[in-house]
Amino acid sequence: MRVTQTMLAQSSLRHINNGYNNLASIQDQLATGKKITRASQDPVVAMKGMRYRTQVTEVEQFKRNLSEVYNWMEAADAALDQGTQALMRIRELATQAANDSYNPQERANIAKEIKQLREHLESIANTKSSNKYIFNGSDTTNPPVGNWESMNQEISVLADMTNAQLEGIDVVYDGRVFRHVGTNEGVLIFQEVSQQDPVFEEDDDFDKRAIQLKIDGDEVIFSKPNKDHDPNNPTSNPISEQTVRASDVIVADKTAVSTNNQTVEVEVIKGVSIPVNINPNNVFSNGMFGDIIRLERALEDTSLSGKDFTGYIDNMFKHIDNFVAERAELGARVNRVEMIESRLMQQEVTANRIMSDNEDADMEKVIIDLMTQESVHRAALGAGARIIQPSLMDFLR
Predict the structure, then answer these.
(1) What local confidence, expressed as pLDDT, does residue 196 receive?
(2) Contact, 290 vs 250, CB < 8 A?
(3) Contacts of 195 (CB under 8 A, 6+ apart)
(4) What's the Cα-to-Cα distance from 358 to each of 24, 39, 160, 170, 371, rounded to whole Å?
(5) pTM
(6) Which residue, among 183, 310, 329, 169, has the nearest Cα to 249 in the 3D structure?
(7) Same domain, residue pair 244 and 262
(8) Do 263 and 133 belong together in one domain?
């Protein structure tokens, strides 16, 4: 085969051009720190890189979600702590008022402080985090508690209400919330909301097994099953009835305190969502605010003695226990979130390492390859110069 000058020149130029391409590729790696800058250079690396980058992006978003979770939970925990302190102060004041050495004026002054504490509890219930109400379930744009005091009414208003109006109210007494279930011979019957059964007028033993309030004009009768009832004793009554003061029964609009208990969930790791709010009905409710107003009215009643405040003190203990229980449940979730955060940090390190192994160039190797390619390129240029340099005149000599 005859090798011509043109063939040598073209071959030399082709190899020199390939050398330039290799130099450009290595210089790109050196400048960007990545193995490839275009998917066509290595489709496998490109596809893996897209998948790894998606994983890293997800981890970064979950970390931002965790910040939101901590904001909610820390705000809720602080609010519950303040609410517990307020209730403990109310209980302390009620205990002081139970001392018969306090005169009516001093008890009335205690009632004023308790009123301020109740208003403080209202503001705590309306706590916001990131401009969202955290104690109103999924309805984070509206406050859960309005002006509760303006919504409570005297017991006498019940006589003029229709059945539809009665269905829109709560009646609070002795730490319990009652709802209207029917009317019997002009007497309004209210059953404790925690009882699903028995049902009024559908159960022959309703009066014997239901905790209820009977309101006949201004007279209020609290009744419940008698635990000491002896069916073999004809004089034993199956129910225990007690006439209570009308001022000791609180009538409130059912919507005075929101009953929205839907959870607000945030995804903190793939496939795992954590509820960030608590059930507000377990702490802020018509029952709690009603019991505090009952205590205020009792302190303003000059006919009561110290022993009459025992029931109010017991009710405050129950509400404090509710706050503590919710705070404990919230704390358990915080512990879980902290474990998820630790797991997420490990995933972030692993995802970044895998992505780096797939995409990042080995800079030491790149520098060596660059120096080698530069030497090869210079040698190719030198050899090409000697091949291409002779002209036709050089051959005719």
Answers:
(1) 82
(2) yes
(3) 210, 211
(4) 21, 13, 78, 65, 24
(5) 0.79
(6) 169
(7) no
(8) yes
